[in-house]
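sry for the spam today, last one i promise. struct tokens for design, 397 residues
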């Protein structure tokens, strides 16, 4: 499924399907639907983050282009994921026209279980039972690993937030520098045009170089935003995706513990009915159903736990590779910028005809000094008598 492209306009994205040779319009909200369905169908998966939603500036060109890059990265991560890429949801999303996709959305909505008030009350009752300690499960090594995972993600998120804050500020300062250099170049150009008989030519060359240098600063600022800040900011949102995956595993654990509590309650009811000599067939059937629910909840919980642990190991490996790529890209475009700026000034310097300081100036200054002030023969050094022996009188003849 490689090769899919995205063109984003206000409110919608066009997914280019190279295999089918078609184009399918998808609203940005359709991407949210896909992520939500992924999370529901594959709990424990770390779903790639979508670009942030904004209400101010969403019609500006920079925002639209940034959203396009973000959706493209999202799609690339989804296609590279072994489980997400093989999901029927992705096939529906990529290859369905608007009508077929709308029907698929309605079908998925209809297939979701209806949570009735009775079910909510039942679940809350089971959670309360857990809170009061009526049913407990032992803390497992997997629990320890996931607690460590949550702590790691929390610390990493704070560090990444600090980096993205300063990377955005640095790109903004570069843009400001580019703007100031361009304005300075324009002022110098105007000065050069007015000073035709003086240094107008040199000022015009200087102004042109300044303006061209400002273009390099502007391009570097844009590269910092696209290749450094945006990928790092995406990783901040990725921390939210990991937290969401951990939360879904927590939900599965609660469901499993609730099922255990239900089995205990139904078992107690059955024993009470048997001890009183009453008909216990309905209690036996109820217990059997609860045990089946418990086994299913346990299997689901263990499956999600295994998936989450696998996902996290993959996440750490990819993070290392991504960080190396982001840093290398940053170094590369900084080197290009530095070399370009240096070349621009090196080319301009000979045209500016700035004469270097003459080496004979200092000699000329020395030759012009008065011989009266600088005698050729130094004055005699006064003689100092040697020290007298201890105890002797300097006035003894």
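last one done:
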């Amino acid at each position: 499924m490689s090769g899919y492209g995205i063109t984003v306009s206000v409110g919608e994205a066009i997914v280019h399907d190279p295999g089918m040779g078609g184009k399918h319009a998808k609203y940005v909200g359709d991407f949210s639907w896909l992520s939500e369905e992924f999370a529901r169908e594959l709990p424990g998966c770390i779903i790639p983050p979508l670009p942030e939603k904004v209400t101010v500036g969403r019609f500006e060109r920079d925002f639209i282009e940034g959203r396009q890059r973000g959706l493209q990265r999202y799609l690339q991560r989804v296609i590279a994921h072994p489980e997400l890429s093989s999901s029927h949801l992705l096939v529906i999303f990529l290859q369905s026209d608007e009508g077929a996709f709308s029907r698929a959305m309605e079908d998925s909505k209809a297939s979701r279980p209806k949570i009735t008030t009775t079910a909510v009350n039942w679940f809350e009752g089971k959670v309360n039972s857990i809170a009061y300690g009526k049913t407990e499960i032992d803390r497992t090594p997997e629990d320890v690993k996931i607690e460590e995972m949550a702590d790691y993600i929390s610390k990493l998120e704070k560090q990444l937030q600090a980096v993205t804050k300063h990377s955005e500020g640095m790109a903004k300062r570069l843009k400001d520098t580019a703007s100031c250099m361009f304005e300075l170049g324009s002022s110098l150009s105007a000065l050069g045009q007015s000073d035709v008989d003086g240094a107008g030519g040199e000022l015009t060359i200087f102004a042109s170089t300044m303006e061209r240098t400002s273009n390099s600063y502007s391009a570097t600022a844009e590269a910092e935003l696209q290749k450094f800040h945006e990928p790092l900011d995406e990783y901040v949102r990725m921390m939210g995706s990991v937290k969401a995956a951990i939360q879904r595993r927590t939900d599965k654990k609660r469901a499993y513990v609730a099922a255990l509590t239900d089995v205990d309650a139904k078992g107690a009811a059955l024993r009470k009915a048997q001890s009183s000599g009453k008909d216990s067939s309905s209690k036996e059937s109820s217990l059997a159903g609860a045990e089946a629910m418990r086994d299913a909840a346990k299997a689901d919980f263990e499956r999600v736990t295994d998936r989450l642990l696998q996902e996290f190991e993959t996440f750490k490996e990819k993070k290392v590779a991504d960080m190396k790529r982001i840093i290398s890209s940053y170094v590369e475009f900084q080197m290009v910028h530095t070399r370009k700026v240096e070349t621009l000034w090196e080319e301009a310097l000979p045209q500016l005809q700035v004469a270097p300081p003459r080496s004979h100036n200092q000699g000329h200054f020395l030759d012009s000094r008065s011989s009266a002030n600088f005698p050729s023969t130094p004055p005699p050094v006064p003689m100092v008598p040697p020290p007298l022996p201890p105890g002797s009188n300097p006035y003894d003849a």
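The longest strand covers residues 12-17. ok im logging off now
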